[in-house]
Structures are given as structure tokens and as C-alpha cells.
């Protein structure tokens, strides 16, 4: 009898009235922001039909294979796991979310992201991995993904085949990483609807960098109104010239001392806004007819300084 009572109490503690404890539920959402949750809540007894699940700001370090496997998982279109100290995600954690469209994983402790983790999510259009710890840009497989944000993630290298498995990608945000040189061949397979953000990286002042941006500008893959700056041997950022010979003499009028003090949140908001407006204009010509709405979300974490917390809702 005592054991039975304990089990009943545990069930009541996990779910109250169909809504997980420490969470707020509406007809189409579950919100558990900053609720001190160490694990993904129990979703099996939900009364609502959750389109949005927001777990931002909780100390969740692991996403297991069954965490998002529940009866109404096919209803979910958006999941927010920003600022959750997340470091490990099972390769099949999102397999049951067949209608998932947007996944936000920014400001976490991810060093690795499984290549095929969203391959089975055929409706996925947006993935935010910004503010993580990737030495090399993760290679991701998805036929539907349109927006990939990996800004401020300490990326130093991009493999030549990094984008080969993303045939529908339109927007790639790689601002404020540690990129010094990138092979233009990475972007050679992208179509005319593609945009890439590469600002605030410590580009080397050499011919390879000149050739990279000449290619990107010729393809209109970058914002031509934004000055491109590279880091010379004196650790000074200078405006990237049009010729390799320009790097033999540093032009004082173009010198900009290296600084790390600028408003990252505003910068990302501006860049993401431009990217989404571009996607809106271009989206009118595509068969998918997807429309994005730009909204700003705020998760107040003491250590969260560079998070991209935005809604890009269908």
C-alpha cells in the first residue's frame, strides 16, 4: 500500500492537470522557461496539442532518445532549448518530431552535433546553433533546412563538403567565429537565393581571402554594402583591398584596432532581420511558399551574453 501511494505521488508531481510541473500550458504551447528543470519534462499525459515547447534557461545537460517521444509529438513545430547548458544530444532525439520546423539550441555547451540528427525531420526549415563550442563547422544533413545560424561558436574550420547535404539552404550565419581562411569551393554549389554572413571573423590579409570575397560578391552571396576587414601581421584589422599587393603596405586611414567590445545581441538581431527579409522576398518565388515572422525573445541568464533568441515562425 505504501509503495502504491508513493508511485501515485510521483505521477502527480510529474504532471499536474496534464501540464508538466513548473510549466505553463496553453492550447498550443508548453512553456517552462527558467524553471530549474534538470531533465526534459514528462509529456505523455498532455491535455493540449503543443505546437511550441519552450525549455529555455533550464540546466538541462542531456537530451535522451525518448525525451521527445510522446503521443502528441507529431503536433510540435518549434522547440526552444536556448541557454540550457546542453552538451549531449542523442543522435535520434528528434526522430519522433515528424513536423518539427524550428529548433533553437543557442548558448549551450555543444562541441559536437550529430550529422544525421535532423535528417528524418522533413519539415525542418530553421536550426540555431549559435554561441556553442564547435572548432569545425558541423556537417548537417537535411533536404529541407533553409536557415542555419552558427554565429559566435568559435569555428576555425569549414570542411569543403560542409554544405553538400543542405540542398535547400538559403541563409547561413557564421558571424563572429574564428575563421581565418575558407575555400570558395564550399559555396560553389549554392543557388542564387543563398546568403552567408561572415562579418567579424579574423580573416587573414592574403590573396585567398581576396579571392573568397570576390567570388561571394560576384555571386551576390554577401552584403556588398558591409566592409570586409582582415587581420594583418600586426594584429590590426584593415579593410580588405581588391588586390593582393594591397597587403604589402598597411594603410593608416583604414586601420581599426582589434576589439571584442561590441553589442553582439544587437548585431545578430540586425543580421538575422536582414536575412529573414531576404528570405521573405525570395520565398515568394519558391514552391514552398514559406513566410517567416520576425520576433525577438528574451531569456535572462546571467551568463548568456551572445544568444540568438529569435522566433522565425511559419
Automatic annotation (TrEMBL):
Keyword Transmembrane: yes
Keywords: Leucine-rich repeat, Membrane, Repeat, Signal, Transmembrane, Transmembrane helix
UniProt xrefs under Pfam families: LRR_8 (PF13855)
Range of residues in the leader sequence: 1-17
Positions of transmembrane segments: 266-295
GO cellular component: cell periphery
Residue ranges of every copy of the LRRCT domain listed in the record: 201-245
The keyword Nucleus is assigned to this record: no
Protein name: Protein slit-like Protein
Gene coding for it: AUGUSTUS-3.0.2_07733
Amino acid at each position: 500500500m505504501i509503495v502504491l501511494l508513493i508511485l501515485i505521488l510521483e505521477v502527480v508531481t510529474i504532471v499536474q492537470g496534464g501540464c508538466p510541473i513548473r510549466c505553463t500550458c496553453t492550447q498550443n504551447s508548453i512553456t517552462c522557461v527558467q524553471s530549474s528543470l534538470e531533465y526534459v519534462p514528462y509529456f505523455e499525459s498532455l491535455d493540449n496539442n503543443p505546437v511550441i515547447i519552450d525549455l529555455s534557461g533550464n540546466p538541462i545537460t542531456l537530451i535522451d532518445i525518448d525525451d521527445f517521444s510522446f503521443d502528441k509529438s507529431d503536433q510540435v513545430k518549434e522547440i526552444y532549448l536556448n541557454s540550457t547548458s546542453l552538451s549531449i544530444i542523442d543522435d535520434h532525439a528528434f526522430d519522433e518530431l515528424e513536423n518539427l520546423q524550428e529548433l533553437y539550441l543557442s548558448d549551450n555547451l555543444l562541441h559536437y552535433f550529430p550529422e544525421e540528427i535532423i535528417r528524418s525531420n522533413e519539415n525542418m526549415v530553421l536550426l540555431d546553433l549559435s554561441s556553442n563550442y564547435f572548432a569545425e563547422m558541423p556537417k548537417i544533413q537535411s533536404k529541407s533546412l533553409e536557415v542555419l545560424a552558427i554565429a559566435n561558436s568559435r569555428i576555425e574550420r569549414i570542411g569543403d563538403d560542409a554544405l553538400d547535404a543542405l540542398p535547400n539552404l538559403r541563409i547561413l550565419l557564421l558571424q563572429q567565429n574564428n575563421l581565418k581562411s575558407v575555400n570558395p569551393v564550399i559555396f560553389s554549389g549554392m543557388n542564387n537565393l543563398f546568403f552567408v554572413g561572415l562579418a567579424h571573423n579574423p580573416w587573414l590579409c592574403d590573396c585567398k581571402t581576396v579571392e573568397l570575397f570576390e567570388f561571394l560578391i560576384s555571386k551576390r552571396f554577401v552584403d556588398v554594402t558591409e566592409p570586409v576587414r582582415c587581420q594583418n601581421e600586426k594584429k590590426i584589422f584593415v579593410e580588405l583591398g581588391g588586390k593582393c599587393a594591397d597587403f604589402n603596405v598597411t594603410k593608416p586611414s583604414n586601420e581599426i584596432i582589434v576589439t571584442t567590445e561590441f553589442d553582439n545581441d544587437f548585431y545578430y538581431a540586425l543580421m538575422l532581420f536582414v536575412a529573414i527579409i531576404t528570405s521573405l522576398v525570395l520565398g515568394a518565388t519558391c514552391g514552398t511558399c514559406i513566410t517567416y515572422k520576425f520576433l525577438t525573445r528574451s531569456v535572462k541568464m546571467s551568463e548568456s551574453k551572445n544568444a540568438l533568441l529569435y522566433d522565425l515562425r511559419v
